[in-house]
Amino acid sequence: MMGSRISRRQLLKLGALVSAGVLAGCAPKVVEKIVKETVIVEKEVAAPAPKVPKQVKLICMDWVRNEIPIDVWTTEYNSGRTDHQIVYERYVSGWDKKVLSAIRAGTNEVSGYFEMRAFEYALGWSKIGLIQPFDPYINASSAPGASGLIDDMLPVIRGQCILEGNMYGFPIDFDETGMAYRLDYFDAVGQDGLPGTWEEIGEVAAAIREKFKGEQVYGIGSSASWYIFGGPGAIFYNTSPQVFDEDGIVRYDSEEFVRALELCKSWADKEISEAPFGTGWVSSWLAGKWGIAWNQHPLAIWAQNNLGKQTVSNPQPLPLKEKGSGCAVWAISWACINKAPHPQEYVDYLITLFYPGNEIGVTMNKKICGTGKLPSFQKAWDEVIAKDPNLQWMMGMGEIAAKAVAPPGLTTAAIQQDRQRAWSEKFFAGEVGAKEAMDKCMEEIKGEIAKMK
User: Fold this and answer.
1) Degrees (nearest 5) of the Cα angle 40, 43, 46?
2) d(Cα 273, Cα 235) in Å, to the nearest integer?
3) Using CA atoms, how far apart are residues 325 and 244, in angstroms rounded to an integer?
């Protein structure tokens, strides 16, 4: 018994060991972490691709870009924009068929086209799905002046750009039938400016022919036929109170049109004009061989460029004393392509660049007027023409344009022009009388229109 007893000292030591073990089991475990090495790996990460601006593609005829500094101002317009850029593409024959095919295939990339005579083409192009109205994009535009743009159009321009309640043409300028004359020839025969009627103009033309016959100069001339814009059609418009019949056809068989044809032929028969009438347009006029000419009003600017401003008058209105419909006016307009990929950007650009409701637009309209073109918006007449002494000749053009009647929206203008040309030329060649020619002209026009229905 004595051999197995535990001494007090041993008992205390054993208790201490047990307590230590229990405490060690209850204590939290400590994990020693050792970071042996940090390795930094460099990995090439591709930079995000730069945002490519949308391309707002427009088709434009070369003559427009040559006459008006569109390219210069478009570059300026593009310089402040990163989300889209205006890109011009050259006009090529057959563009309409190509674009229409792309529209139908869902691959169209073109938003706008220039230039269009809206009254002549818009309704036909709309019906085949080539163009769409501007209205929703003008209404949604935040460009300066957008809200007042339509109301600011000259009434005769509004009447041919807004058809069947929709704005199909965005006009930037317009032409009208005008006249011009040789200043030196007028001085030589003692004439101060154009007289007020066609009869009086014919008398001045006869005097010029008589004085300068030896130099192969003729008194007066125009195109043989060009719808209602030139030749006898322009005389008819200026002297007739009613230009179109109820079907939108020019009243070719009217007494006024027949008289206009006969007046032109009488000048050719008397050698006051080249014969047959219409011969020499436009070459004889630009060569300085005509005393007076009428057709689209820039004919004066063309001759000034050839012969000098000291030799040729500024554009002149048709005779203001005649009691007709003034003169033909036709707006030069942009069209909005159907299914355009970027129609709003396109319309915002047009408003900014061509509407004189902002500084850029006023500057562009100054450039347009500087080419001899007439502006389509009243603001341009107030802000540009009225303030420039060199443009005061435009006031007379505006006065007679205010009398003009807007051509009806047509799909038959080309047919009318074609038939008028054919029968007018037969009359001028002496093959048929004026009344018979125009009766046949109307008969064929109505026959062609009937086939379209």
Assistant:
1) 150
2) 15
3) 11
Beta strands at 162-163 and 166-167: parallel, antiparallel or unpaired: antiparallel
Residue 362 buriedness (CB in 10 A; 0-12 / 13-18 / 19+):
middle
- What distance in Å separates the CA atoms of residue 365 and residue 377, rounded to the nearest whole number? 9
pLDDT in tens, 37-76: 555 656 666 666 667 899 999 999 998 888 888 999 999 9
Distance CA 374, CA 314 (A): 13
Q: What is the mean pLDDT of each run of 10 residues along the chain (453 residues)?
A: 43 41 44 52 65 94 88 92 96 97 98 94 96 98 95 95 96 97 98 96 98 98 92 97 94 98 98 97 97 97 97 96 94 97 98 94 94 96 96 96 88 92 96 98 97 86
Q: Which two tokens stand for residue 119?
A: 């009254």
The whole-angstrom separation of Cα 411 and Cα 280 is: 31
Query: Domain spans of the chain?
Result: 54-174+330-392, 183-312+412-452
Q: Which two tokens stand for residue 224?
A: 């043989």
Name residues whose C-beta falls within 8 Å of residue 433's C-beta, 6 or more positions apart in sequence: 427
Q: 183-312+412-452: which CATH number, 2.40.160.20, 3.40.190.10, 1.10.1760.20, 3.30.1490.20?
A: 3.40.190.10
Element (H, E) at 343: helix 343-354
Kind plus residue range of the DSSP H or E element containing 27: none
Q: Strand 170-181 and strand 329-337: pairing?
A: antiparallel
Cβ contact 178:296 at 8 Å: yes
CATH of 54-174+330-392, one of 3.30.930.10, 3.40.50.2000, 3.40.190.10, 3.30.70.20: 3.40.190.10
Per-residue model confidence (pLDDT) at position 52 = 87
Give the dihedral sign, CA 296/300/306/307. positive
Calculated CA dihedral for residues 392, 397, 403, 408, nearest 10 degrees = -130
Q: Which residue has the tokens 């009398």?
A: 403
Could you give the angle at which helices 413-428 and 434-452 cross, rounded to 10 degrees?
160
Phi first, then psi: give them for residue 262, nearest 5 degrees: -65, -35
- 388/369 Cα distance (integer angstroms): 10
Q: According to DSSP H, which parts of 270-342 are helical?
A: 283-286, 299-307
Measured CA to CA, the distance from residue 127 to residue 338 in angstroms comes to 11
> How many C-beta atoms surround the C-beta of residue 124 within 10 A?
16
Cβ contact 376:173 at 8 Å = yes
**Element at 109 (helix H, strand E):** none
Alpha-helical (H) ranges within 270-321 are: 283-286, 299-307
